[in-house]
Amino acid sequence: MPRIILTTVVVAATVALTACEPATSTAAPAKTVTVAPTPSDTVTPASKATPTPVKTRTEPTRIRVPNVVGHNHQKAQNEMQAHGLYMLAEKDATGQGRMLLWDRNWVVVRQTPHAGTLVKSTATITLYSKKIGE
Question: Where's the PASTA domain (predicted)?
């Protein structure tokens, strides 16, 4: 056992002394290089950006209201949208206040504004419909 301890101490001492010795190097010392900027490397101040023009609100386009009286309610809505009229309201023409849940079962009997009227694209078009067969 003393022999193992002695060997361990000798190995540890050898490692410690080896780590303390100055390292010998054959590499040449590092050289410092200074590079002067070329004209293409120089930074020029940015030119003043021109402000982007403010977009002004344009008036909605005017659209001639198509005649959809007598058309199936769903087809009438599709036709209005095809002409650029998306603000659509619908009412039960019988005055019963029913909701038009299944548009294909209804037919348009009246519309406001009337067909041929020029309206803004944001105008609300009201379609008055009744169930087919009433």
Answer: 64-128
Q: What angle do CA 77, 115, 82 make, to 5 degrees?
A: 35
Number of domains making up the chain:
1
Rounded Cα gap, residues 19 and 49, in angstroms:
63
Domain of residue 117, residue span:
62-131
CATH number reported for the structural domain that contains residue 91 in this entry = 3.30.10.20
18 domain-assigned? no
**pLDDT tens digits along 76-134:** 999 999 999 999 999 999 999 999 989 899 999 999 999 999 999 999 999 999 999 98
14-54 per-position pLDDT tens digit:
655 555 555 555 666 666 766 666 666 555 666 666 677 77
Is-contact 77 108, C-beta < 8 A? no
DSSP string, 24-50: P--SPPPPP---PPPGGGS--PPPPPP
Residue 11 within any structural domain of the chain: no
